[in-house]
Write a structure and sequence with these properties.
Blueprint lengths: L1 H36 L4 H18 L8 H19 L5 H24 L5 E7 L4 H16 L4 E7 L5 H9 L7 E4 L2 E3 L4 H9 L3
Parallel strand pairs: 1-2
Antiparallel strand pairs: 1-3, 3-4
């Protein structure tokens, strides 16, 4: 039974690693492509968007991982790619692919907490464009994560990205205003560092 569970975990982690490798390639390719041509092919964009939509719908609700080291490594890679994507104008399909990876990692963290008696703290951060309060909260969340590296994961979902996963989460948590922050089913909009620290600390 344990061997079967281990194989299932390994398969899920390998699958996520493959997704991550593909996204890294696409980010690099798109950066060079946009630099040369200024825009991506409409056909490529349509095909990529369709593919990501299908993957997103298939991935909603997937389980499970007990390899904390691998979760940390992939989480760090996601943070690095997120920084890259936030510094330029990248094609929509890349942003949607990144959303898929964030959600996949979030579900793995949830599964780790449930199946491995873990105490990781996933935080969902819902933002939108032209939102000064979102920018302010992003700084507070960054400081919070830096105060407890390896235990706090922040997943940022932009409501303007037409992703099935973003739409699902907004409906699920009944997000009506921005920013909205979800920590272990506690919801706030403009929170202080100490408030978030207190909520996050309840899991430890």
């Amino acid at each position: 039974m344990a061997g079967r569970s281990s194989k299932k975990v390994d398969k899920k982690l390998i699958e996520l690693s493959i997704y991550l490798a593909v996204l890294l390639f696409l980010v690099s390719f798109a950066g060079a492509y946009l630099g040369l041509l200024g825009r991506t092919s409409l056909v490529e964009s349509d095909v990529s968007n369709t593919l990501v939509d299908m993957l997103s719908l298939l991935e909603i609700g997937e389980p499970t991982a007990c390899d904390l080291t691998t979760l940390h490594i992939i989480g760090d890679e996601l943070d690095r790619i997120g920084q890259i994507l936030s510094t330029g104008k990248y094609p929509e399909y890349l942003l949607k692919y990144y959303v898929l990876l964030e959600y996949k990692h979030y579900k793995l963290v949830e599964s780790y907490n449930k199946d491995c008696n873990g105490s990781l703290t996933p935080i969902l951060f819902f933002i939108t464009k032209d939102c000064p309060k979102c920018d302010a909260m992003a700084g507070i969340l960054t400081n919070l994560k830096q105060s407890d590296p390896g235990h706090i994961y922040i997943y940022t979902f932009n409501a303007t990205i037409p992703s099935p996963i973003v739409h699902y989460l907004i409906r699920h948590y009944n997000v009506k205003e921005f920013p909205t922050i979800v920590v272990d089913h506690n919801i706030c909009h403009v929170c202080t560092y100490d408030e978030l620290r207190s909520i996050a600390g309840e899991k430890r």
